[in-house]
C-alpha cells in the first residue's frame, strides 16, 4: 500500500482511496483541496490499493479515524472488488456510510456493487463530469456529519465560504487525468539570455498558500532538473532567479509543497540566436510590405488586395512591358487577362523582395 499525506498536522479529514490508473485524478483532488481555504486547513491522506493486497488491520484503523473517504472508482480499483480478501477488507474499511463518497472515474454503476457493499446506495455519488464545487460540497457534508455540525462552514468567514480555486483542470478521456495548467500562468520574461542573471516573475490564476514552501523546477532537455526556491511577491505572484542553463526551451513546474500547481516554459537564448531571430523577422517580405503600407495587423490577404487595386488603378492605358509579359492593348484587357497579369505581377514582386532580402 502507498500512503501520502498532505496538509497540516492533526486528524485525517479526507482519505482518498485509489488504484494506480487513477493517480492523476488523486493528484487533481489534492490540488483542489489544497487551494480551498477551509479544506486545506485539514489533513489529507491518499491511499493506493496495489494488486491483490488486502487492507491490513493497522491500515483499517486509519480508515476508521478518517472523517471522510473518497473512493475513486476506476477500472483497476473495481477489479479489486472481485478479489475476496480485498473485498472483505474494503467492506470493513468503508464504514459508516455517511462518510464515504464514491467518484466514478471512467466506469459506470453496476448491480454487482450493491451485492458487494450493502451500504452502496447510501454513499454520496459523484462523477468525473461534476463541477469542482460538487466535490468540495460532498467532502464538507461528510465531515460535518462526522462532527455532528449542521455545516462545516458554520464558523467560516464570507471569504472562506467561496473556494479560491474553482477552475476545473482539463480531464483527459482515458483516465480523466489532469492536464497541463500552463494556460493559467503568465511568465515575464519568457525569454532568458544565457549567462545573464534574470529574475522571472510567474503570475498564477489561483492564490498560493504563503505558509507552504513554493519552488520552481527547471527541466532542461540535456541536463538534470534544477529546483529553485521561489519568493512570494503576493498571493498570486512568485519570483525566482533563473538558473544558468544552455539555450533551448525549458519546461517549468511550480510546486506548492509536494504538489504541482502549475506548468509552463521559458526559452533560453544566446546573443547570436537573438540576433538571428531579429534579422529573420526584419527580413520577412510580407511583414516589411505590410509595414510600408501601414497594414496593421499584418495580413497577406489585405496586402494582396491593396496591390491588386493599386495595379488596376495605375496601369498605363497603352499597356506594359514588365517581367517578360507581352504588352496588352487596352481594348484587349479582358477580365481574365487582367487577373492573370495581376497574378504574375504580384508573384514577381514577392520574389523580388525575397531575393533582395539580406
Automatic annotation (TrEMBL):
Q: Where in the cell is it found?
A: Cell membrane; Cytoplasm
Please provide the record's keywords in A-Z order: Cell membrane, Cytoplasm, Membrane, Phosphoprotein
Gene Ontology CC annotation, any one: cytosol
Where does the TIR domain start and stop, copy by copy?
10-147
Look up keyword Cytoplasm and say if it applies: yes
Membrane topology classification: Peripheral membrane protein
Residue ranges occupied by any DBB domain in the UniProt entry: 187-323
Organism superkingdom: Eukaryota
Record-level Gene Ontology MF annotations: phosphatidylinositol 3-kinase regulatory subunit binding; signaling receptor binding
Q: Which InterPro entries match?
A: B-cell_PI3K-Signaling_Adptrs (IPR052446), DBB_domain (IPR017893), PIK3AP1_TIR (IPR041340), TIR_dom (IPR000157), Toll_tir_struct_dom_sf (IPR035897)
GO BP: any one term:
signal transduction
Q: What is its main location?
A: membrane
Q: What does this protein do?
A: Signaling adapter that contributes to B-cell development by linking B-cell receptor (BCR) signaling to the phosphoinositide 3-kinase (PI3K)-Akt signaling pathway. Has a complementary role to the BCR coreceptor CD19, coupling BCR and PI3K activation by providing a docking site for the PI3K subunit PIK3R1. Alternatively, links Toll-like receptor (TLR) signaling to PI3K activation, a process preventing excessive inflammatory cytokine production. Also involved in the activation of PI3K in natural killer cells. May be involved in the survival of mature B-cells via activation of REL.
Q: What is this protein called?
A: Phosphoinositide 3-kinase adapter protein 1
Organism for this UniProt entry: Limosa lapponica baueri
Q: Taxonomic classification, please?
A: Eukaryota, Metazoa, Chordata, Craniata, Vertebrata
Amino acid at each position: 500500500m502507498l500512503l501520502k499525506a498532505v496538509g497540516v498536522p492533526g486528524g485525517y479529514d479526507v482519505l482518498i482511496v485509489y488504484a494506480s490508473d487513477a493517480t492523476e485524478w488523486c493528484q487533481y483532488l489534492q490540488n483542489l483541496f489544497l487551494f480551498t481555504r477551509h479544506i486545506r486547513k485539514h489533513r489529507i491522506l491518499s491511499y493506493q490499493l496495489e494488486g491483490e493486497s488486502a487492507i491490513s488491520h493497522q491500515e483499517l484503523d486509519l480508515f476508521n479515524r478518517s472523517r471522510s473517504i473518497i473512493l475513486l472508482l476506476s477500472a483497476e480499483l473495481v477489479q479489486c472488488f472481485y478479489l475476496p480478501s480485498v473485498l472483505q477488507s474494503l467492506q470493513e474499511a468503508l464504514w459508516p456510510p455517511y462518510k464515504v463518497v464514491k467518484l466514478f472515474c471512467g466506469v459506470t454503476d453496476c448491480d454487482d456493487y450493491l451485492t458487494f457493499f450493502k451500504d452502496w446506495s447510501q454513499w454520496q455519488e459523484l462523477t468525473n463530469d461534476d463541477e469542482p464545487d460538487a466535490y468540495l460540497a460532498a467532502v464538507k457534508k461528510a465531515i460535518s456529519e462526522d462532527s455532528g455540525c449542521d455545516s462545516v462552514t458554520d464558523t467560516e468567514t464570507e471569504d472562506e465560504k467561496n473556494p479560491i480555486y474553482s477552475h476545473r483542470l482539463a480531464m483527459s478521456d482515458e483516465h480523466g487525468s489532469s492536464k497541463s495548467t500552463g494556460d493559467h500562468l503568465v511568465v515575464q520574461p519568457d525569454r532568458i539570455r544565457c549567462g545573464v542573471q534574470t529574475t522571472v516573475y510567474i503570475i498564477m490564476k489561483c492564490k498560493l498558500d504563503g505558509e507552504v514552501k513554493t519552488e520552481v523546477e527547471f527541466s532542461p532537455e540535456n541536463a538534470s532538473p534544477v529546483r529553485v526556491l521561489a519568493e512570494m511577491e503576493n498571493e498570486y505572484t512568485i519570483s525566482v532567479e533563473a538558473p544558468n542553463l544552455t539555450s533551448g526551451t525549458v519546461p517549468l513546474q511550480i510546486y506548492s509543497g509536494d504538489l504541482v500547481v502549475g506548468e509552463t516554459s521559458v526559452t533560453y537564448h544566446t546573443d547570436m540566436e537573438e540576433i538571428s531571430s531579429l534579422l529573420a523577422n526584419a527580413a520577412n517580405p510580407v511583414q516589411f510590405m505590410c509595414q510600408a503600407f501601414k497594414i496593421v495587423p499584418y495580413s497577406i490577404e489585405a496586402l494582396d488586395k491593396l496591390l491588386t487595386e493599386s495595379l488596376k488603378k495605375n496601369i498605363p492605358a497603352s499597356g506594359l512591358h514588365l517581367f517578360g509579359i507581352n504588352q496588352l492593348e487596352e481594348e484587349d484587357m479582358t477580365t481574365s487577362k487582367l487577373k492573370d497579369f495581376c497574378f504574375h505581377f504580384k508573384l514577381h514582386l514577392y520574389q523580388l523582395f525575397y531575393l533582395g532580402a539580406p
